[in-house]
C-alpha cells in the first residue's frame, strides 16, 4: 500500500492557506456581485440537487480544493476502493459496500473471486424470506402470523436498519411492526418487547462478528422472553428441549459474517443470512443487515433503495471532481475543518421521517474519521473528523439554532428537504408542507445573509436592543433537495454521505474503515466485571475514581 500523501505539503494546501488568509466572508456582497453564483455552485447527482453557494467559498477555493483532491490521489483511491483493493490496511480487507448494490452484470473481484453473484444470491434469499413473512406464509410455532419483527443489534447492526425503517415508514406493511433493541441496558429489551405476543414475534439477531456483548446478551434475553411466553401460553411444554428448538427456529433468524458462531448460539443455519468481511458495520445497511427493512418495505422497494445507492456510487465513481457532489462536499468539509476551524457539522433534515439520520451519520462519519494516525501508522498532520450532530427542523430551530446563528463558533450545516410531502395536510387553506419548507428556505437565507443593525433599526427596535438582534450572517450551509423521500432517494443520501466520508479520509490519509478505538471499550467492560461482583483484588486494581464509583454502586444497589 502506498504511503498517504501529507496534504499539508501540497501546493494546493498552500494555495488554500492563502485563500483563507485573504478571505473576507461576505455572502451578501458575493451574491449581489455575481448573479450566477447560486447556479454555478449548485450541482445535481442522481435525484439530488445540492446547492453549495451559501458556503464560504468562491471559484478559486473550489478549484484549489479539487486540486487538493487530485494531489492526494483521491481519484486513485476511489478506483482502488471500487476495484476491491485492500484499502482497509489495518484490518487487511477490501472495502466493497459498493458491491452490495452492484448490478448483476458487474464483476468485482476480491482475491480473484467475483463477489457480485454471491451478493445477488444472498439478496434472493433475503427477498424470499421477506416475502414469506409479509405474505403470512412464515408463521410462528403456534401457526400465528408474524406481526412484529424485532431487530437485535448495535452500532452498524442497528443504526442503519432503524434509520431506514423510520425514514421509509410510509412504505411499510400495515399490521407488521418493526422494533429495534440495541442497548445492553435491560430497559431497552423490556420496553421493546412490551405488549408483544411471543407467538406473533420474530427476532432478527444481527451481528457482523457475532461476538458483541450487547447483542448476544439481548439475544439470550429475547430467547428467554420468547420461551417463557410460549410456555405461559401453553404453546410449548416446559422443559421440552426439542419443542424449544422448534420454537426458536420459527422465531429467530440471524444475520452475520460468522456463520459458525450463529450455529453455536443455537440459530438454525437455514435461518441465517450472511455477508462478508469487506463490508464495514457502518456501511452495511445494504447487505443482509437490512433484512428487517426488506421485510418492512418488501423486496421491490428494497431493490429500489439499493438502486438509489448504486446511482450515487456511479456518480461518485465516474464524475470529474469538478462536478462530483460527494467529492466536493467532502473537500468542502476539509475546508471548513482545516481552514475555517469548524469543530462540528450539523445535519438538519426538514423531514420528520429522517429523525434518526443524524444519529446514523454520527457512526458513519465519526467511527470512520475519528482517527489520529494515518493508514501507514504515522501521526496525522492535520485536524481530522469533525463532530456530526443534528435534529430535524423545525424542532432544532427552537433548541440549538440560536448558537448557529449568533454564537461565537462556526457550525457548517447541511439542510435536507423534499419538494413533496408524504402527507399533504392542510391547515384551513394553508398547505402545511409549504409552511414547513418556508422555514427551511428562511433558515438557510438567515444564516447566510444575517440581519444588519440598520435592518434591525428599520423595524423600530430600541437602540439598546439593536446589537442583540443583529445576525452576523456568513454562516455556511449546504442545501440538499430531492423530489420526495423515496427508497431510492434515501439510498442516494446514504451513499452520498459514505463517499463524503471517504473523501475526507483520503485527504487526511486515514483508514476510514477500521475502529480500533471502539474495541478497547469492549475489552475494558469485561475486565471490570469481577470488581463489580465484589472481588477485592479486582477492585484494588481499579483507579481511585473508578473504585469509588463501583463502591457507590455496591452500597446503593
Ligand atoms: O461499535 C463498534 C462496532 O464494532 C461497530 O463498528 C459495529 O457496527 C458494532 O460494533 C456492532 O458490531 P457487530 O455487528 O459485530 O455486532
Automatic annotation (TrEMBL):
Record bears the keyword Repressor = no
Q: Name one GO molecular function term.
A: isomerase activity
Location of the active site: 367, 398, 522
Q: Give the reaction(s) catalysed.
A: alpha-D-glucose 6-phosphate = beta-D-fructose 6-phosphate
Annotated metabolic or biological route of this protein: Carbohydrate biosynthesis; gluconeogenesis; Carbohydrate degradation; glycolysis; D-glyceraldehyde 3-phosphate and glycerone phosphate from D-glucose: step 2/4
Q: Report the principal subcellular site.
A: cytoplasm
Q: Does the keyword DNA repair apply?
A: no
Q: Where in the cell is it found?
A: Cytoplasm
Quote the EC number.
5.3.1.9
Instruction: Recite the UniProt keywords alphabetically.
Output: Cytoplasm, Gluconeogenesis, Glycolysis, Isomerase
Q: What class of enzyme is it?
A: isomerase
Q: Which InterPro entries match?
A: G6P_Isomerase (IPR001672), G6P_Isomerase_C (IPR023096), Phosphoglucose_isomerase_CS (IPR018189), SIS_dom_sf (IPR046348), SIS_PGI_1 (IPR035476), SIS_PGI_2 (IPR035482)
- Which domain of life does the UniProt lineage start with? Bacteria
Q: Which SUPFAM superfamilies match?
A: SIS domain (SSF53697)
User: Its family?
Assistant: Belongs to the GPI family.
Described function: Catalyzes the reversible isomerization of glucose-6-phosphate to fructose-6-phosphate.
- NCBIfam families, sorted: PRK00179.1 (NF001211)
Protein's recorded name: Glucose-6-phosphate isomerase
Q: Gene name, please?
A: pgi
